[in-house]
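Hey, resending since the last one bounced:
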Amino acid sequence: MNVLQTSKVTWKDVPTQTITAGDVKFAYRELGVDNPGTPVVFLIHLAAVLDNWDPRVIDGFSATHRVITFDNRGVGASSGAPASSMEEMAKDAISFIKAMGLDQVDLFGFSMGGMIAQEIALMEPRLVRKMIITGTGPAGGEGISKVARVTYLDMIRGWLTFQDPKQFLFFTRTPAGIRAGKEFLQRLKERSENRDDAITVAALQAQLKALRKWGAKSPADLSRIYQPVLVANGDGDRMVPSSNTYDLAKRLPNCELVIYPDSGHGAVFQFHTDFVPKALEFLSREPMSERNA
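The structure tokens again:
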């Protein structure tokens, strides 16, 4: 296999690049191995830019796959006005993927990214081979319309206690959850140079509007998503309630479910040593349609 970069590059030092799709200049990072397999496109969560991805997850995937991450329109270093609906974000993601010259991809969507992934699969089913969606829920799912309130409350909670709000939003308040949160936040600081631009208030407000719309939307027919899907979460997600994870598992016809104990929204980061091998094994299996071809 040929490495995409001339030397071993990790998430800590991979360069940020840009590509234009339509009227948007997307900022993205690409690393891993250039093999005959399907590239994995990562879809980011609420209020996040490129530097919010856990290095252990990115580097874990890129050990065997070509990994591509990007900033949504109007977020981080990407140009344009931020989208205010999941449908718009999905269309932007499709434009980015096609601008990269990719005919088919695997999607890894965390939180809001998992919602975008569902829309992509419904809009352009041939573009998606497999999906991994974590800490997420379906349109109209329980508590999703209240994500903005939970987010603002925990932002205030973080300011009052001089802590990152993700410590409260992503992790439980048990000793294991608190420890996992601190370790996760330290990993996010490993990239010290050439970091991404922070999200703006306008972009955050647009994303919160999109989440409110998604929470109020009529449930989609998820039986139309025929691709294999790995759904994962913690058993105590208070940001996107864990009941949504079980709902997805019931409604997606070709789904595998992973629930981690004593963990919340960021369970796949807390349990990255278990999640990454599970995800890679899931991606390595040929879909049924390919086996029967």
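The mean pLDDT is 93.

Sorry for the duplicate.
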